[in-house]
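Appendix B. Chain record.
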Amino acid sequence: MTPAAAACAIGLGSNLGDSVDILDRAIDQLVATPHIHHIQVAHYYRTKPVGGPPHQPDYLNSAAIFTTSRSPWQLLEILQSIENQAGRTRIVRWGARTLDLDLLIYGAWDIDSPHLQVPHPRMADRAFVLRPLAEIAGTWDCGGQTVQQLLSGVDCSDVVLHC
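Structure tokens predicted for this chain:
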């Protein structure tokens, strides 16, 4: 069952190709997607890679919030389709990528399935997710703490506003 309009948050990242253009195009595709409304996008932040293979280029990260009447699984399919259109390949886990779109929050839903976990299980530990998300949804609740409270518990020294 899907609520009439669930408030959602996604994380966006890119570290291959023209990351600004890739992120801009992904946002344009979201804006053009039926049943996705009221999109707000945070600034872009340059960040060091976290985990994954060594010697990756820096990432450009952001976050977006919106409402949708799509189910979480439909939304995941849309996000993966946008990634694929941007040339995303899934060869190396946490490797460099043209585009990464992660569903972070879907209303008050808790989902723990093999293909989808919401809220995103590593969101609370990742400054590159929390910093842009706090910019547009700092008061949102994430398991008893706001995004801003979660942000205050992580080191943001490697998350730099991209000019």
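Further analysis of this model is presented in Appendix C.
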